[in-house]
Amino acid sequence: MMERSDSELVSSILSGQAADYAVLVKRYQKPVFNLMLRMNFSVSDAADLTQEAFIKAYENLERYNPVRPLFPWLYAIGRNLALDHLRREKTASAAKENLRRQIDLVPNPGGGGNPEEAPDLRRLRQCLRELPEDYREAVVLRFHEGMNMKEIGRALGLSVSGAKMRVRRGLVRLRQAFFGGDHGEEP
Amino acid sequence: MARNHSMEDPTRSERRELEKIARLVASLPDREPPDAILDAVMARVQPKRAGRLVRLWRKLRTPVPMSPLWPALAGSVAVVLLVVTILPDPVERTGDPDTRTVEEAAAERPVLFTLDMPEASRVDLIGSFNRWSPGRFNMQWDESRGLWVIRLKLEQGRHEYAFLVDGERAVPDPNARFQEDDGFGNTNSILVVQGGNGHETGI
Question: Bridge-partner residues for B151, per DSSP?
């Protein structure tokens, strides 16, 4: 049976079927939670912020434009919440240390991946941590979450050309950090 | 002086490195969220109040005991229905040129993807609709047509996709009407699903 689309679920929720929101939470809690972890929050804080993001999204569901994909909209809510939290609490550096300690302890839940790539993935995580947040998220949204440039623009509050540039620069910076050397230096 | 051609004109080796980085980012394992998130969210959400039309529809479907006043009541309902119909419903949004109702947006259309590549031993369809994840949409070899095929229902709108051949080589749809360079030397095919009787690609 074909699973219900996001817009069908939103339609149902707006007509009073609150229980259908659980389907959307299950569908998107993982990327939102991992966004929070990338933003350097502890697991516990990341869970709390994920929860807050979904509650805020529910409260504002009438404002979601159903012709557009839901995930960039949800993602933007989660990211703005996280940035506000970081600004307000000024815990960025403390949280960063938290993550630095914890991320190396995170087991690889993929399991079935190519074992030869494990060192590469570890190295990539390290390089991603050191990338500025706006570049990191642009690259992750494009290549990990599979968003197109328009969706990335909506999620990050950029124009399409701005999103494209952010992704390209992020990828080039990541490549520099990963492979080293002075090639591909940005101005 | 540092070279700056990676942004506009990567060399072959730089492109290979960029592709490797992109592949690694795609395969980064995600951490599972705690189960408590779902329960905590659902404990705090209250049912939305339905729009006027939805409430009226439910009210009309509720059985009403017959009485001598029934014809008058039916007449009143008809008047209310007429008034409500000409008022804007809160579900509909204004001020946004591409706004449609959720019901319209919910429509999905059947799409047939095909690829003429008999030498492949496995083909996956990857795209924006499955977060570019291989393994979710395995194409089947159709002996009678001599094509790899998969039939899906996709929401109306714009979708990017490619075929992942033998798990390692992403190729665009040679018959797609639109292609888009992703900026790193890869080409994605573009499919725009519109209303009607479905859209077939690659035929």
Answer: B112
